[in-house]
# Entry
Amino acid sequence: MSPRKKQKLRAGFVAIVGRPNVGKSTLLNRVLGEKVAIVTPRPQTTRTRILGVWNGEGAQIAFFDTPGLHKAKGVLNRRMVEVALSTLPEVDAVLFLVEAGTSPEGKVEIGETTRWAAAEVAKRGKPAILGINKMDRAPRATLLPVIDAYKDLHAWAELVPFSALDGENVEQLLKAIVAHLPEADEPLFPKDMLTDQAERTLAAEYVREQVMLLTRDEIPYSCAVEIEEFDESQRSDRAGLVRISAVIFVERETQKGIVIGKGGQMLKKIGTNSRYHMERLLGCKVFLSLTVRVEERWSERPKSLEKLGL
Ligand SMILES: Nc1nc2c(ncn2[C@@H]2O[C@H](COP(=O)(O)OP(=O)(O)O)[C@@H](O)[C@H]2O)c(=O)[nH]1
Ligand SMILES: [Mg+2]
# Structure
C-alpha cells in the first residue's frame, strides 16, 4: 500500500466584480463553456448574483458573477450594487476586472468609479486578483503601462492580462486564482454542477438579452421577463420538445409597441434569437410563445423586484 497522501484540493468562492461592462459575465461563460450569464454591450445587464462552478486539476472555483459596481441611482440599480457588494464578505478571494487599453495619447486613465470600487474591495481585506480584460483590443506595447498604473491602486495578489472574448491567458488567470484559495478535503459542489441558475431562469434571461440587444433608449433598462409556462412533458433525453411561454414586462404602452415592432417583426426576432439559445441549453426543440405586457414602474416596486429574484 502506498503511504502517499492524497493530493490536497484547492477550492473556494470567488466574486467577479468590477465596473459595468468590463466583461465579468463574458469571462464566466468562457470559463464554464456555457451561457449561464447574459452578455450585451450595455451596462447593467447582469441584475442578480450568478453562481458558476469551474473544475480543474485538483481545484474548484465557485465563481459569483455580480452586477457592475457603480454610483447607482434608482431603486433597481441601487439594489444591484448592494447585491455585488454583499457578495464580498462571503468569498475567499476577489477577481477584480478592469479593461486593458490606453487613451489615444497613450495615457492610462483610471476612473473615479474604478477607484471607488477598488476601495470597497480593499475594505473587506480579501486576497484580490486584478484581471485586465480585453487584451485582444489593446496593442501589446500598452499592456505594461496599464499594469504599472493599476499596480498602485491596491495591493493585488496577482495582475493578469487576458481576453474573455478569445480566451487568451484565461488558463493563467484561473491558475493565479487557484493559488490564493484555501486547501480543502472535499470540493464545494458536485463535479457535474455548473450553476445555480435554473433552466427556467436562464430561458427568461435569454429573452431579456435579446430585448437589450435589439431595442434602444430606455427599453433595455425598463424590461423584465417572466416565464409563465415551462412544459417539459414532451421532453426526452435527446429529442422532444419543451414548451415555454414568457411575458416581457415594459413600463409604458409606447414601449410595448416598440418591443412588438411593425407587424410583430421585433417580437419575432426576439423570439427566434432567444429560442436558439434555449434549444442549445436544453438540447431539444423549443416551442416559444412571447407576449408583452405593460406594468407601470415595475422597477420601483419591491414586490416586482422580489418576483424577479432581486
Ligand atoms: N473585445 C472584447 N470585448 C469583450 C471582452 N469581454 C467582454 N467583452 C464585451 O464587453 C461587453 C460587456 O460584456 P459583459 O460580459 O456583459 O460585461 P459585464 O457587464 O462586466 O458582465 C460585451 O459587449 C462583451 O462582448 C474581451 O475580452 N474583449
Ligand atoms: Mg454582467
